Amino acid sequence: MSHLFNHVVFLVIFHGPRMLVVFTFSIRATALSDDATFPTQRRDRAHEAARNLGRGFGAARLFKEYKEVQREKSADPDIQLICDDSNIFKWTALIKGPSETPFEGGVFQLAFNIPEQYPLLPPQVRFLTKIFHPNVHFKTGEICLDILKNAWSPAWTLQSVCRAIIALMAHPEPDSPLNCDSGNLLRSGDIRGYQSMARMYTRLAAMPKKDNLVKRDTPFLPVVKEAVAGG
Amino acid sequence: MSSTLIQIERWRAYLRENRALISHLRRDLGGRRREKRKTSTEPNPPLPPSPSRTPEPEPNPPHAKLAREAADASAAGADAAAPVPEEAVMGEAAAAAAPEALLVEGGGGEGMNPNPSGGGGGGGCSESVSVELSMGGDYYHSCCGDADLDLRAPEGPKLPYVGDKEPLSTLAAEFQSGSPILQEKIKLLGEQYDALRRTRGDGNCFYRSFMFSYLEHILETQDKSEVDRILKKIEQCKRTLVDLGYIEFTFEDFFSIFIDQLESVLQGHETSIGAEELLERTRDQMVSDYVVMFFRFVTSGEIQRRAEFFEPFISGLTNSTVVQFCKASVEPMGEESDHVHIIALSDALGVPIRVMYLDRSSCDAGNISVNHHDFIPEANSSEGGAAAEKPYITLLYRPGHYDILYPK
Known about the structure:
By secondary structure, chain A is of the alpha+beta class. Chain A has seven helices and four strands, in the order αααββββαααα. Chain A has a domain of about 160 residues: Ubiquitin Conjugating Enzyme (Roll). In chain A, strand 1 and strand 2 form a beta hairpin. Chain B has one domain. Chains A and B meet through helix 2, helix 3, helix 4 and helix 5 of A and helix 1, helix 2, helix 6, helix 12 and helix 14 of B. Chain A: Keywords: ATP-binding, Nucleotide-binding, Peroxisome biogenesis, Transferase, Ubl conjugation pathway.
Protein backbone atom coordinates (compact mmCIF):
# COMPACT_ATOMS: atom_id res chain seq x y z
CA MET A 1 0.00 0.00 0.00
CA SER A 2 2.73 2.42 0.92
CA HIS A 3 4.50 1.76 -2.34
CA LEU A 4 1.26 2.44 -4.13
CA PHE A 5 0.81 5.55 -2.13
CA ASN A 6 4.19 6.93 -3.12
CA HIS A 7 3.14 6.41 -6.64
CA VAL A 8 -0.04 8.34 -5.99
CA VAL A 9 1.81 11.31 -4.60
CA PHE A 10 4.09 11.25 -7.59
CA LEU A 11 1.12 11.30 -9.91
CA VAL A 12 -0.58 14.05 -8.00
CA ILE A 13 2.42 16.24 -8.23
CA PHE A 14 2.56 15.94 -11.96
CA HIS A 15 -1.07 15.67 -12.91
CA GLY A 16 -2.88 17.58 -10.22
CA PRO A 17 -5.52 16.43 -7.80
CA ARG A 18 -8.21 15.48 -10.31
CA MET A 19 -6.00 12.76 -11.58
CA LEU A 20 -5.68 11.62 -8.01
CA VAL A 21 -9.39 11.31 -7.55
CA VAL A 22 -9.67 8.90 -10.42
CA PHE A 23 -6.62 7.02 -9.31
CA THR A 24 -7.46 6.66 -5.69
CA PHE A 25 -11.02 5.76 -6.32
CA SER A 26 -9.74 2.96 -8.46
CA ILE A 27 -7.59 1.83 -5.51
CA ARG A 28 -10.65 1.92 -3.40
CA ALA A 29 -12.55 -0.10 -5.93
CA THR A 30 -9.93 -2.85 -5.96
CA ALA A 31 -9.84 -2.84 -2.20
CA LEU A 32 -13.56 -3.36 -2.19
CA SER A 33 -13.57 -6.27 -4.58
CA ASP A 34 -10.58 -7.97 -2.95
CA ASP A 35 -11.98 -8.06 0.52
CA ALA A 36 -15.64 -8.44 -0.16
CA THR A 37 -15.83 -11.17 2.43
CA PHE A 38 -14.20 -9.17 5.23
CA PRO A 39 -16.31 -6.13 5.74
CA THR A 40 -14.25 -4.58 8.54
CA GLN A 41 -11.03 -4.98 6.72
CA ARG A 42 -12.65 -3.63 3.64
CA ARG A 43 -13.79 -0.61 5.52
CA ASP A 44 -10.31 -0.08 6.93
CA ARG A 45 -8.81 -0.22 3.50
CA ALA A 46 -11.34 2.19 2.11
CA HIS A 47 -10.68 4.46 5.03
CA GLU A 48 -6.97 4.31 4.50
CA ALA A 49 -7.44 5.12 0.85
CA ALA A 50 -9.55 8.11 1.82
CA ARG A 51 -6.92 9.25 4.27
CA ASN A 52 -4.23 8.92 1.68
CA LEU A 53 -6.42 10.89 -0.63
CA GLY A 54 -6.45 13.70 1.92
CA ARG A 55 -2.72 13.45 2.37
CA GLY A 56 -2.27 13.46 -1.37
CA PHE A 57 -4.22 16.65 -1.64
CA GLY A 58 -2.15 18.23 1.08
CA ALA A 59 1.03 17.25 -0.71
CA ALA A 60 -0.31 18.47 -4.04
CA ARG A 61 -1.24 21.81 -2.58
CA LEU A 62 2.14 22.16 -0.89
CA PHE A 63 3.85 21.31 -4.14
CA LYS A 64 1.94 24.13 -5.82
CA GLU A 65 3.06 26.46 -3.08
CA TYR A 66 6.61 25.21 -3.55
CA LYS A 67 6.47 26.01 -7.25
CA GLU A 68 5.02 29.43 -6.51
CA VAL A 69 7.77 30.12 -3.99
CA GLN A 70 10.41 29.13 -6.53
CA ARG A 71 8.82 31.24 -9.21
CA GLU A 72 8.44 34.35 -7.05
CA LYS A 73 11.65 33.98 -5.15
CA SER A 74 12.54 37.62 -5.46
CA ALA A 75 9.02 38.97 -5.06
CA ASP A 76 9.28 39.33 -1.32
CA PRO A 77 12.80 39.92 -0.06
CA ASP A 78 11.61 39.73 3.55
CA ILE A 79 10.59 36.09 3.36
CA GLN A 80 12.51 32.97 2.39
CA LEU A 81 10.58 29.75 2.48
CA ILE A 82 12.52 26.52 2.38
CA CYS A 83 10.99 23.09 2.02
CA ASP A 84 12.60 20.14 3.73
CA ASP A 85 14.45 18.00 1.21
CA SER A 86 12.78 14.77 2.14
CA ASN A 87 9.44 15.83 3.57
CA ILE A 88 7.09 18.28 1.93
CA PHE A 89 5.17 18.61 5.21
CA LYS A 90 8.12 20.30 6.91
CA TRP A 91 9.18 23.79 5.99
CA THR A 92 11.41 26.46 7.39
CA ALA A 93 11.07 30.17 6.83
CA LEU A 94 13.44 33.03 7.39
CA ILE A 95 11.74 36.35 7.88
CA LYS A 96 13.26 39.78 8.34
CA GLY A 97 12.16 41.80 11.30
CA PRO A 98 10.00 44.65 10.04
CA SER A 99 11.58 48.09 9.91
CA GLU A 100 10.85 50.67 12.57
CA THR A 101 10.33 47.93 15.12
CA PRO A 102 12.72 46.53 17.71
CA PHE A 103 13.06 43.51 15.43
CA GLU A 104 14.56 45.49 12.57
CA GLY A 105 17.78 44.00 11.31
CA GLY A 106 17.05 40.61 12.79
CA VAL A 107 16.43 37.43 10.83
CA PHE A 108 13.97 35.09 12.48
CA GLN A 109 13.60 31.45 11.73
CA LEU A 110 10.16 29.86 11.70
CA ALA A 111 9.43 26.15 11.72
CA PHE A 112 6.38 24.94 9.82
CA ASN A 113 4.93 21.60 10.72
CA ILE A 114 2.11 20.93 8.33
CA PRO A 115 -0.68 18.50 9.13
CA GLU A 116 -1.74 15.94 6.54
CA GLN A 117 -5.14 17.55 6.27
CA TYR A 118 -3.60 20.82 5.14
CA PRO A 119 -5.05 23.10 3.80
CA LEU A 120 -8.20 22.21 5.73
CA LEU A 121 -6.15 22.52 8.90
CA PRO A 122 -3.65 25.32 9.47
CA PRO A 123 0.10 24.74 9.51
CA GLN A 124 1.69 24.66 12.94
CA VAL A 125 4.18 27.48 13.03
CA ARG A 126 6.60 28.47 15.73
CA PHE A 127 9.59 30.71 16.10
CA LEU A 128 12.87 28.84 16.30
CA THR A 129 14.67 32.11 16.95
CA LYS A 130 14.08 33.52 20.38
CA ILE A 131 11.91 36.59 20.28
CA PHE A 132 10.47 38.90 22.92
CA HIS A 133 6.96 39.62 21.73
CA PRO A 134 3.65 39.56 23.60
CA ASN A 135 2.07 37.05 21.23
CA VAL A 136 4.95 34.61 20.99
CA HIS A 137 5.70 32.13 23.73
CA PHE A 138 9.14 32.93 25.04
CA LYS A 139 10.22 29.34 25.48
CA THR A 140 8.40 27.33 22.86
CA GLY A 141 8.09 29.96 20.15
CA GLU A 142 4.39 29.24 19.83
CA ILE A 143 2.53 32.03 18.08
CA CYS A 144 -0.85 33.35 19.14
CA LEU A 145 -2.38 34.38 15.87
CA ASP A 146 -6.02 33.76 15.05
CA ILE A 147 -5.39 32.71 11.46
CA LEU A 148 -3.20 29.88 12.72
CA LYS A 149 -6.02 28.66 14.92
CA ASN A 150 -9.73 29.12 14.51
CA ALA A 151 -9.72 31.82 11.84
CA TRP A 152 -7.69 29.66 9.47
CA SER A 153 -8.96 29.14 5.97
CA PRO A 154 -7.36 27.47 2.96
CA ALA A 155 -7.21 30.88 1.30
CA TRP A 156 -4.03 31.47 3.29
CA THR A 157 -0.73 30.13 2.05
CA LEU A 158 2.58 29.54 3.79
CA GLN A 159 3.81 32.73 2.21
CA SER A 160 0.85 34.81 3.36
CA VAL A 161 1.11 33.26 6.83
CA CYS A 162 4.68 34.58 6.94
CA ARG A 163 3.40 38.00 5.98
CA ALA A 164 0.79 37.86 8.69
CA ILE A 165 3.48 36.94 11.21
CA ILE A 166 5.58 39.89 10.09
CA ALA A 167 2.51 42.09 10.51
CA LEU A 168 2.02 40.67 13.98
CA MET A 169 5.62 41.50 14.85
CA ALA A 170 4.95 45.10 13.90
CA HIS A 171 1.56 45.21 15.62
CA PRO A 172 1.70 43.31 18.89
CA GLU A 173 -1.59 42.55 20.62
CA PRO A 174 -0.75 42.96 24.29
CA ASP A 175 -4.32 42.15 25.30
CA SER A 176 -3.94 38.51 24.36
CA PRO A 177 -0.42 37.75 25.52
CA LEU A 178 1.42 34.47 25.40
CA ASN A 179 4.45 36.25 26.79
CA CYS A 180 2.92 38.05 29.72
CA ASP A 181 6.04 39.98 30.69
CA SER A 182 6.17 41.47 27.27
CA GLY A 183 2.43 42.09 27.26
CA ASN A 184 2.53 43.74 30.66
CA LEU A 185 5.22 46.17 29.58
CA LEU A 186 3.10 47.32 26.70
CA ARG A 187 -0.11 47.30 28.68
CA SER A 188 1.40 49.45 31.36
CA GLY A 189 2.57 51.88 28.71
CA ASP A 190 6.27 51.16 29.12
CA ILE A 191 6.98 51.28 25.41
CA ARG A 192 10.63 52.02 25.97
CA GLY A 193 11.04 49.05 28.27
CA TYR A 194 9.34 46.78 25.76
CA GLN A 195 11.40 48.06 22.90
CA SER A 196 14.71 47.71 24.64
CA MET A 197 13.95 44.19 25.79
CA ALA A 198 12.79 43.21 22.34
CA ARG A 199 15.80 44.90 20.79
CA MET A 200 18.17 43.11 23.14
CA TYR A 201 16.78 39.70 22.26
CA THR A 202 16.84 40.58 18.58
CA ARG A 203 20.55 41.35 18.88
CA LEU A 204 21.25 38.31 20.97
CA ALA A 205 19.32 35.78 18.98
CA ALA A 206 18.42 37.10 15.56
CA MET A 207 21.58 38.76 14.34
CA PRO A 208 24.90 37.33 13.24
CA LYS A 209 27.01 37.14 16.37
CA LYS A 210 30.32 38.63 15.28
CA ASP A 211 29.46 41.27 12.82
CA ASN A 212 26.16 42.44 14.16
CA LEU A 213 27.67 45.81 14.89
CA VAL A 214 29.67 46.08 11.70
CA LYS A 215 27.28 44.90 9.03
CA ARG A 216 23.94 45.26 10.60
CA ASP A 217 22.01 45.27 7.38
CA THR A 218 23.33 41.97 6.06
CA PRO A 219 20.10 40.25 5.23
CA PHE A 220 21.03 36.63 5.80
CA LEU A 221 23.89 34.66 7.18
CA PRO A 222 26.06 33.03 4.50
CA VAL A 223 25.28 29.59 5.86
CA VAL A 224 21.64 30.31 5.63
CA LYS A 225 22.01 31.49 2.08
CA GLU A 226 23.50 28.20 1.14
CA ALA A 227 20.64 26.39 2.69
CA VAL A 228 18.23 28.45 0.68
CA ALA A 229 20.04 27.70 -2.54
CA GLY A 230 20.07 24.02 -1.74
CA GLY A 231 16.48 23.78 -0.66
CA MET B 1 2.17 37.01 -5.43
CA SER B 2 1.11 40.59 -5.80
CA SER B 3 -2.41 39.45 -5.05
CA THR B 4 -1.31 38.09 -1.70
CA LEU B 5 0.37 41.36 -1.13
CA ILE B 6 -2.84 43.19 -1.78
CA GLN B 7 -4.64 40.86 0.57
CA ILE B 8 -2.13 41.37 3.30
CA GLU B 9 -1.94 45.08 2.72
CA ARG B 10 -5.68 45.25 3.13
CA TRP B 11 -5.43 43.22 6.26
CA ARG B 12 -2.71 45.47 7.60
CA ALA B 13 -4.66 48.58 6.77
CA TYR B 14 -7.68 47.26 8.59
CA LEU B 15 -5.53 46.33 11.49
CA ARG B 16 -4.13 49.80 11.65
CA GLU B 17 -7.42 51.58 11.22
CA ASN B 18 -9.66 49.43 13.28
CA ARG B 19 -7.53 47.97 15.97
CA ALA B 20 -10.09 48.55 18.64
CA LEU B 21 -12.78 47.12 16.46
CA ILE B 22 -10.78 44.09 15.54
CA SER B 23 -9.86 43.22 19.05
CA HIS B 24 -13.46 43.64 20.01
CA LEU B 25 -14.45 41.32 17.23
CA ARG B 26 -11.82 38.80 18.19
CA ARG B 27 -13.05 38.82 21.70
CA ASP B 28 -16.53 38.31 20.42
CA LEU B 29 -15.67 35.45 18.17
CA GLY B 30 -13.27 34.03 20.68
CA GLY B 31 -15.97 34.06 23.26
CA ARG B 32 -18.36 32.16 21.09
CA ARG B 33 -15.76 29.67 20.13
CA ARG B 34 -14.62 29.10 23.63
CA GLU B 35 -18.11 28.13 24.54
CA LYS B 36 -18.20 25.52 21.85
CA ARG B 37 -14.82 24.12 22.69
CA LYS B 38 -15.13 23.96 26.41
CA THR B 39 -17.96 21.55 26.28
CA SER B 40 -17.57 19.67 23.07
CA THR B 41 -14.10 18.34 23.72
CA GLU B 42 -11.51 18.27 26.38
CA PRO B 43 -10.18 21.80 26.10
CA ASN B 44 -6.68 22.95 25.39
CA PRO B 45 -3.75 22.47 27.68
CA PRO B 46 -3.46 25.16 30.30
CA LEU B 47 -1.28 28.15 29.57
CA PRO B 48 2.29 26.99 29.56
CA PRO B 49 4.38 28.56 32.28
CA SER B 50 5.61 32.02 31.46
CA PRO B 51 9.28 32.93 31.64
CA SER B 52 9.57 34.26 35.16
CA ARG B 53 7.90 34.73 38.53
CA THR B 54 4.64 33.44 37.26
CA PRO B 55 2.21 31.64 39.43
CA GLU B 56 -0.07 29.18 37.70
CA PRO B 57 -2.82 30.81 35.75
CA GLU B 58 -6.27 30.50 37.23
CA PRO B 59 -8.61 28.36 35.22
CA ASN B 60 -11.53 30.65 35.92
CA PRO B 61 -10.26 34.11 35.27
CA PRO B 62 -12.16 36.85 37.01
CA HIS B 63 -12.33 39.98 35.01
CA ALA B 64 -14.70 42.45 33.61
CA LYS B 65 -14.82 41.35 30.00
CA LEU B 66 -15.70 37.86 30.96
CA ALA B 67 -18.72 39.07 32.79
CA ARG B 68 -19.90 40.85 29.71
CA GLU B 69 -19.30 37.79 27.61
CA ALA B 70 -21.13 35.72 30.11
CA ALA B 71 -24.11 37.97 29.70
CA ASP B 72 -23.90 37.64 25.95
CA ALA B 73 -23.47 33.93 26.19
CA SER B 74 -26.39 33.41 28.45
CA ALA B 75 -28.53 35.47 26.16
CA ALA B 76 -27.39 33.50 23.15
CA GLY B 77 -27.51 30.26 25.03
CA ALA B 78 -31.04 30.81 26.24
CA ASP B 79 -32.06 31.79 22.79
CA ALA B 80 -30.62 28.82 21.09
CA ALA B 81 -31.37 26.23 23.69
CA ALA B 82 -34.91 27.16 24.43
CA PRO B 83 -36.83 25.10 21.92
CA VAL B 84 -34.64 22.05 22.18
CA PRO B 85 -35.22 19.17 24.53
CA GLU B 86 -32.44 17.67 26.61
CA GLU B 87 -30.79 15.34 24.13
CA ALA B 88 -28.31 17.25 22.12
CA VAL B 89 -29.99 17.06 18.79
CA MET B 90 -28.26 20.21 17.89
CA GLY B 91 -24.69 20.01 19.03
CA GLU B 92 -24.19 23.71 18.68
CA ALA B 93 -27.11 24.87 20.69
CA ALA B 94 -26.41 22.48 23.50
CA ALA B 95 -22.77 23.44 23.50
CA ALA B 96 -23.70 27.08 23.67
CA ALA B 97 -25.95 26.57 26.62
CA ALA B 98 -23.73 24.68 29.01
CA PRO B 99 -20.62 26.81 29.34
CA GLU B 100 -22.78 29.68 30.35
CA ALA B 101 -22.44 28.40 33.86
CA LEU B 102 -18.71 28.25 33.53
CA LEU B 103 -18.48 31.79 32.35
CA VAL B 104 -20.87 33.17 34.85
CA GLU B 105 -18.79 31.56 37.51
CA GLY B 106 -15.80 33.46 36.20
CA GLY B 107 -17.82 36.61 36.02
CA GLY B 108 -19.02 36.11 39.55
CA GLY B 109 -15.49 36.30 40.80
CA GLU B 110 -15.26 39.75 39.40
CA GLY B 111 -16.61 41.40 42.49
CA MET B 112 -13.66 40.22 44.50
CA ASN B 113 -11.19 41.41 41.96
CA PRO B 114 -9.49 44.56 43.26
CA ASN B 115 -8.37 45.55 39.82
CA PRO B 116 -10.87 44.63 37.16
CA SER B 117 -8.67 45.74 34.32
CA GLY B 118 -10.98 45.31 31.39
CA GLY B 119 -8.46 46.84 29.06
CA GLY B 120 -8.62 50.36 30.42
CA GLY B 121 -7.12 49.41 33.75
CA GLY B 122 -3.57 49.76 32.57
CA GLY B 123 -1.50 50.11 35.71
CA GLY B 124 -1.08 47.89 38.71
CA CYS B 125 1.19 45.58 36.80
CA SER B 126 3.19 44.29 39.72
CA GLU B 127 0.19 43.78 41.94
CA SER B 128 -2.06 41.99 39.57
CA VAL B 129 0.24 39.58 37.85
CA SER B 130 -2.06 36.68 38.42
CA VAL B 131 -5.04 38.62 37.21
CA GLU B 132 -3.24 39.64 34.10
CA LEU B 133 -1.99 36.15 33.71
CA SER B 134 -5.29 34.52 34.10
CA MET B 135 -6.47 36.93 31.53
CA GLY B 136 -3.72 35.69 29.31
CA GLY B 137 -4.94 32.23 30.02
CA ASP B 138 -8.40 33.19 29.07
CA TYR B 139 -7.31 34.59 25.77
CA TYR B 140 -5.04 31.71 25.28
CA HIS B 141 -8.13 29.57 25.16
CA SER B 142 -10.03 31.88 22.93
CA CYS B 143 -7.31 32.67 20.52
CA CYS B 144 -5.17 29.61 20.72
CA GLY B 145 -7.65 26.82 21.07
CA ASP B 146 -6.99 23.73 19.06
CA ALA B 147 -8.15 24.38 15.55
CA ASP B 148 -11.09 22.37 14.38
CA LEU B 149 -11.07 19.42 16.64
CA ASP B 150 -13.77 17.92 14.49
CA LEU B 151 -11.31 17.54 11.70
CA ARG B 152 -8.87 15.76 13.92
CA ALA B 153 -11.32 13.32 15.39
CA PRO B 154 -13.72 12.36 12.65
CA GLU B 155 -14.76 9.10 14.26
CA GLY B 156 -16.76 8.74 17.37
CA PRO B 157 -20.25 8.33 18.58
CA LYS B 158 -21.30 11.54 16.86
CA LEU B 159 -23.98 11.87 14.25
CA PRO B 160 -22.55 11.30 10.78
CA TYR B 161 -22.06 14.42 8.70
CA VAL B 162 -25.31 13.59 6.98
CA GLY B 163 -27.74 11.17 8.59
CA ASP B 164 -30.24 8.70 7.19
CA LYS B 165 -33.62 9.72 5.92
CA GLU B 166 -36.13 9.42 8.71
CA PRO B 167 -39.87 10.04 8.92
CA LEU B 168 -41.00 13.37 10.27
CA SER B 169 -42.61 11.54 13.16
CA THR B 170 -39.20 11.21 14.78
CA LEU B 171 -39.12 14.98 15.01
CA ALA B 172 -42.53 14.98 16.65
CA ALA B 173 -41.36 12.35 19.12
CA GLU B 174 -38.36 14.46 19.97
CA PHE B 175 -40.53 17.42 20.90
CA GLN B 176 -43.15 15.36 22.68
CA SER B 177 -42.51 17.05 25.97
CA GLY B 178 -41.54 20.35 24.37
CA SER B 179 -43.42 23.51 23.72
CA PRO B 180 -46.99 23.08 22.42
CA ILE B 181 -46.32 25.72 19.79
CA LEU B 182 -43.51 23.65 18.36
CA GLN B 183 -45.62 20.51 18.48
CA GLU B 184 -48.32 22.33 16.57
CA LYS B 185 -45.80 23.55 14.03
CA ILE B 186 -44.42 20.07 13.51
CA LYS B 187 -47.94 18.85 12.84
CA LEU B 188 -48.31 21.58 10.23
CA LEU B 189 -44.96 20.65 8.71
CA GLY B 190 -46.21 17.08 8.47
CA GLU B 191 -48.90 18.22 6.07
CA GLN B 192 -46.33 19.20 3.47
CA TYR B 193 -43.25 17.21 4.33
CA ASP B 194 -42.85 13.58 5.14
CA ALA B 195 -39.19 13.05 5.85
CA LEU B 196 -36.15 14.57 7.41
CA ARG B 197 -32.44 14.04 7.12
CA ARG B 198 -30.31 15.32 9.94
CA THR B 199 -26.85 16.78 9.58
CA ARG B 200 -24.13 17.07 12.17
CA GLY B 201 -24.17 20.30 14.12
CA ASP B 202 -20.58 21.28 13.60
CA GLY B 203 -21.11 24.72 12.14
CA ASN B 204 -21.04 23.39 8.60
CA CYS B 205 -24.58 22.01 8.68
CA PHE B 206 -26.01 24.48 6.21
CA TYR B 207 -23.39 23.73 3.59
CA ARG B 208 -23.58 19.99 4.10
CA SER B 209 -27.36 20.05 3.93
CA PHE B 210 -27.16 22.07 0.76
CA MET B 211 -24.51 19.81 -0.74
CA PHE B 212 -26.40 16.62 -0.17
CA SER B 213 -29.75 18.06 -1.10
CA TYR B 214 -28.49 19.53 -4.33
CA LEU B 215 -26.51 16.50 -5.45
CA GLU B 216 -29.39 14.22 -4.56
CA HIS B 217 -31.69 16.39 -6.63
CA ILE B 218 -29.37 16.11 -9.63
CA LEU B 219 -29.05 12.38 -9.09
CA GLU B 220 -32.82 11.96 -9.08
CA THR B 221 -33.71 14.31 -11.91
CA GLN B 222 -30.62 13.73 -14.09
CA ASP B 223 -31.12 17.34 -15.15
CA LYS B 224 -28.25 17.86 -17.55
CA SER B 225 -29.17 21.44 -18.38
CA GLU B 226 -29.09 22.32 -14.69
CA VAL B 227 -25.61 20.85 -14.44
CA ASP B 228 -24.46 22.82 -17.44
CA ARG B 229 -25.98 25.94 -15.94
CA ILE B 230 -24.30 25.52 -12.56
CA LEU B 231 -20.97 24.68 -14.19
CA LYS B 232 -21.13 28.07 -15.90
CA LYS B 233 -21.92 29.69 -12.59
CA ILE B 234 -19.00 27.92 -10.96
CA GLU B 235 -16.74 29.23 -13.68
CA GLN B 236 -17.99 32.74 -12.88
CA CYS B 237 -17.31 32.21 -9.19
CA LYS B 238 -13.77 31.21 -10.05
CA ARG B 239 -13.27 34.42 -11.96
CA THR B 240 -14.78 36.42 -9.12
CA LEU B 241 -12.28 35.00 -6.68
CA VAL B 242 -9.36 35.63 -9.01
CA ASP B 243 -10.56 39.21 -9.52
CA LEU B 244 -10.73 39.64 -5.77
CA GLY B 245 -7.07 38.72 -5.54
CA TYR B 246 -7.33 35.10 -4.40
CA ILE B 247 -4.56 32.87 -5.69
CA GLU B 248 -6.01 30.19 -7.88
CA PHE B 249 -4.20 27.26 -6.32
CA THR B 250 -5.71 28.09 -2.94
CA PHE B 251 -9.22 27.23 -4.10
CA GLU B 252 -9.01 25.18 -7.29
CA ASP B 253 -8.88 21.80 -5.52
CA PHE B 254 -12.10 22.55 -3.70
CA PHE B 255 -13.77 23.53 -6.93
CA SER B 256 -12.63 20.45 -8.78
CA ILE B 257 -13.83 18.13 -6.01
CA PHE B 258 -17.31 19.59 -6.24
CA ILE B 259 -17.31 19.38 -10.02
CA ASP B 260 -16.25 15.74 -9.71
CA GLN B 261 -19.20 15.03 -7.46
CA LEU B 262 -21.51 16.84 -9.83
CA GLU B 263 -20.28 14.82 -12.77
CA SER B 264 -20.46 11.56 -10.95
CA VAL B 265 -24.10 11.93 -9.96
CA LEU B 266 -24.94 12.19 -13.65
CA GLN B 267 -25.41 8.65 -14.86
CA GLY B 268 -23.86 7.06 -17.87
CA HIS B 269 -20.21 7.65 -17.06
CA GLU B 270 -17.60 5.24 -15.90
CA THR B 271 -17.41 7.17 -12.64
CA SER B 272 -21.16 7.48 -12.08
CA ILE B 273 -22.40 6.83 -8.59
CA GLY B 274 -25.73 5.91 -7.05
CA ALA B 275 -27.59 7.18 -4.03
CA GLU B 276 -25.71 4.95 -1.62
CA GLU B 277 -22.31 6.04 -2.80
CA LEU B 278 -23.42 9.67 -2.74
CA LEU B 279 -24.36 9.31 0.90
CA GLU B 280 -21.08 7.58 1.62
CA ARG B 281 -19.14 10.35 -0.04
CA THR B 282 -21.02 13.07 1.79
CA ARG B 283 -20.07 11.26 4.96
CA ASP B 284 -16.47 10.92 3.92
CA GLN B 285 -14.57 13.53 5.83
CA MET B 286 -12.29 14.54 3.02
CA VAL B 287 -14.84 14.84 0.22
CA SER B 288 -17.42 16.41 2.49
CA ASP B 289 -15.10 19.00 3.96
CA TYR B 290 -13.67 19.87 0.58
CA VAL B 291 -17.14 20.51 -0.79
CA VAL B 292 -18.06 22.55 2.28
CA MET B 293 -14.96 24.60 1.70
CA PHE B 294 -15.91 25.03 -1.95
CA PHE B 295 -19.23 26.52 -0.85
CA ARG B 296 -17.44 28.74 1.64
CA PHE B 297 -15.19 30.12 -1.09
CA VAL B 298 -18.17 30.69 -3.38
CA THR B 299 -20.12 32.42 -0.61
CA SER B 300 -17.20 34.59 0.37
CA GLY B 301 -16.55 35.55 -3.23
CA GLU B 302 -20.17 36.50 -3.82
CA ILE B 303 -20.38 38.59 -0.66
CA GLN B 304 -17.23 40.48 -1.57
CA ARG B 305 -18.21 40.88 -5.20
CA ARG B 306 -21.43 42.55 -4.14
CA ALA B 307 -19.98 44.18 -1.08
CA GLU B 308 -22.22 47.21 -1.43
CA PHE B 309 -25.34 45.08 -1.31
CA PHE B 310 -24.22 42.99 1.64
CA GLU B 311 -22.55 45.73 3.63
CA PRO B 312 -25.65 46.93 5.53
CA PHE B 313 -26.58 43.36 6.53
CA ILE B 314 -23.10 42.66 7.73
CA SER B 315 -22.50 45.84 9.65
CA GLY B 316 -25.82 45.26 11.36
CA LEU B 317 -24.85 41.73 12.25
CA THR B 318 -21.29 41.95 13.40
CA ASN B 319 -20.10 45.50 13.28
CA SER B 320 -17.31 44.51 10.95
CA THR B 321 -16.41 45.28 7.35
CA VAL B 322 -17.34 42.98 4.52
CA VAL B 323 -13.82 41.65 4.10
CA GLN B 324 -13.40 41.08 7.82
CA PHE B 325 -16.71 39.30 7.92
CA CYS B 326 -15.71 36.98 5.11
CA LYS B 327 -12.34 36.22 6.66
CA ALA B 328 -13.79 35.63 10.11
CA SER B 329 -17.28 34.23 9.56
CA VAL B 330 -17.45 32.73 6.10
CA GLU B 331 -14.16 31.17 5.08
CA PRO B 332 -13.06 29.33 8.23
CA MET B 333 -14.53 25.85 8.61
CA GLY B 334 -17.07 25.52 11.38
CA GLU B 335 -18.33 29.07 11.18
CA GLU B 336 -22.09 28.97 11.27
CA SER B 337 -24.20 30.30 8.47
CA ASP B 338 -26.83 32.96 8.56
CA HIS B 339 -29.22 34.63 6.16
CA VAL B 340 -26.34 36.49 4.57
CA HIS B 341 -24.52 33.28 3.71
CA ILE B 342 -27.63 31.65 2.30
CA ILE B 343 -28.49 34.64 0.13
CA ALA B 344 -24.94 34.76 -1.18
CA LEU B 345 -24.66 31.06 -1.94
CA SER B 346 -28.09 30.90 -3.51
CA ASP B 347 -27.31 33.91 -5.70
CA ALA B 348 -23.83 32.81 -6.62
CA LEU B 349 -24.88 29.37 -7.82
CA GLY B 350 -28.34 30.39 -8.95
CA VAL B 351 -30.03 27.74 -6.85
CA PRO B 352 -33.27 28.61 -5.03
CA ILE B 353 -33.50 27.45 -1.42
CA ARG B 354 -36.51 27.24 0.88
CA VAL B 355 -36.00 27.41 4.62
CA MET B 356 -38.76 26.37 7.02
CA TYR B 357 -38.41 27.96 10.40
CA LEU B 358 -39.21 25.81 13.37
CA ASP B 359 -39.09 28.32 16.18
CA ARG B 360 -41.49 29.86 18.62
CA SER B 361 -42.25 32.97 16.62
CA SER B 362 -45.68 34.06 15.45
CA CYS B 363 -47.35 32.52 18.43
CA ASP B 364 -49.15 35.66 19.50
CA ALA B 365 -51.78 35.80 16.76
CA GLY B 366 -53.40 32.55 17.72
CA ASN B 367 -53.37 30.92 14.32
CA ILE B 368 -50.06 29.17 14.18
CA SER B 369 -48.22 28.77 10.91
CA VAL B 370 -44.75 27.66 10.02
CA ASN B 371 -42.76 30.58 8.69
CA HIS B 372 -40.72 29.96 5.65
CA HIS B 373 -38.47 31.98 3.47
CA ASP B 374 -37.63 31.33 -0.15
CA PHE B 375 -34.21 32.42 -1.24
CA ILE B 376 -34.66 33.05 -4.94
CA PRO B 377 -31.46 33.89 -6.74
CA GLU B 378 -31.37 37.36 -8.13
CA ALA B 379 -30.18 36.36 -11.56
CA ASN B 380 -32.99 33.84 -11.98
CA SER B 381 -35.71 36.37 -11.41
CA SER B 382 -34.45 38.50 -14.27
CA GLU B 383 -34.01 35.54 -16.59
CA GLY B 384 -37.61 34.61 -16.00
CA GLY B 385 -38.62 30.99 -16.25
CA ALA B 386 -36.44 29.77 -13.45
CA ALA B 387 -37.93 32.36 -11.14
CA ALA B 388 -41.25 30.63 -11.21
CA GLU B 389 -39.50 27.44 -10.23
CA LYS B 390 -40.28 26.28 -6.76
CA PRO B 391 -37.17 25.72 -4.66
CA TYR B 392 -36.27 22.05 -4.76
CA ILE B 393 -33.98 22.37 -1.79
CA THR B 394 -35.83 22.66 1.48
CA LEU B 395 -34.04 23.01 4.76
CA LEU B 396 -35.49 22.86 8.21
CA TYR B 397 -34.15 25.57 10.45
CA ARG B 398 -34.11 25.34 14.19
CA PRO B 399 -32.23 28.10 15.98
CA GLY B 400 -28.60 27.35 15.28
CA HIS B 401 -29.07 24.39 13.00
CA TYR B 402 -30.15 23.27 9.52
CA ASP B 403 -31.44 19.85 8.45
CA ILE B 404 -32.84 18.61 5.16
CA LEU B 405 -36.60 18.29 4.62
CA TYR B 406 -38.32 16.13 2.01
CA PRO B 407 -41.67 17.29 0.62
CA LYS B 408 -44.48 14.83 0.07
